[in-house]
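Researcher: Please translate sequence to structure tokens.
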Amino acid sequence: MNKIDLSKPTRQAIKGLAIIFLQSIRQAIRMFWALIAVVVLQKNILDNKNLISIVLLIILALLIIHTILYYLNFYFYVTEDEFILKKGYLKKKTLSIPLDRIQSVNTKQNLIQQLLNVLTLEIDTAGTVSKELKIHALEKPYADALHNYLSNAKSTSTSNENSEISEASEVDEKLVLSLNPIDLLKIGISQNHIRTGLIIIAFGSQIFNQIQDLFEEKAEEYSSELVNFLSESSLALFIFLIIFFLIISVLFSLFRTVFKYFDFKLLKSKKAFRVKAGLVNKRNVLMPYNKIQELNWETGPVKQLFGIYNLVFKQAVSGQNNKAQQLVDAPGCFNNHLEMLKDDLFGEEKLNNSPKVFTNKYYFRRLWLFIGWLPTLLSAPFLYNEWVYWLAVALWLGATAWYSVLILRKRYFRINNQQIRISKGAIEHKWKQMELFKIQSVEFRQTIFQKRRSLASLQLTNASGSMTIPYINESIAKQIYDYLLYHTEISEKSWM
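Model: Translation complete:
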């Protein structure tokens, strides 16, 4: 088998010309879609076919020229301790990334790339806000070699050592979890459909607002007609609309689940997990054990009926942008999968022998005040003389009290001299677990109201984000705070 020379400056696959051309068209449409809509609706412009042909030919020529120049001036290579990428023809840019700064290397493949048989390689590095390094058209053998080299590279490694690792990286992988169509159906049904519906509403309102800016008179006319129609409608119509809304939300959740998790596979080797999934956009994510900062898992009423959990592996964050968190989820896990993954990441389970330390009951009063009483008191001056208001207040205070009790019951943590696990939730139940040596900072927090009651909160930060332990006994909080600071100072283990 011939080894691929990664140190030689290389361009993308020739098929990348088609990818770059299509991306340029998409970017142009995204930037000028409003102008395009206005032009299309202006009949006098459309009647001038010669002008349209000339404009389209000029745009096409510019896009082709841009595609060729971008392709010719985009190349990359690997040195002994750096990955170097050069791009740009009007404004040239060189990105030089030390190999030991690379957080993760992932591959993706959308529908067009599947037809062209090429892959996108994404390189995420410590200190960048987003995935700045993207190579959109690589042949699979080259993408695999570069992916494995960069995933396993260290600043002290040599080319030969990394080449050997890259050739053997996917050997002896063991299948941990795969999802069949029935599993996808269960996952889709157990999603948060209310949240999905709100996303649909938000997306639809954005489109409506943009259309309203372009066609203000028509939009106002249709809006007023819709308001009049709904005001004159019966209760049966409103019930029908609610049911229709829920059906659309469930269907959207099911489609999203299939597109995202189709052919899902979670594999493990001696040093890493690998996730492969996707119908239209295929992803292949490698997660070395040492780069996983914490393991999160959750369940809920519907998930409990199916006996499944949703797991999330949290890797290091790039920069300070929470949106750039490296989250890789594994839905549809049964309890045996969860226990096996915890054993792989944290070793033998010992946290269950540690006692649960619950959040103080004062936390319930605080929650109920902010989500129950405060909205009630703010709205009282405007609606106090309506009997319906008082009925709504009684129901609201009862519901928020019940909700606050659920939160309090699930707010606890367990800790030993190696790990910590934090529990939270309300309707759903969520857990976070990490090893203590991966904590990068500990913050002791105490408001004047907490101090009066000898309470305090702790915030633990690692490379993937932070987790909070709220409203616990002050003496316990100080002991944990002192121990964790001491632990982070004496620990010689690498957090990544």
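Researcher: Any highlights?
Model: The longest strand covers residues 465-473.
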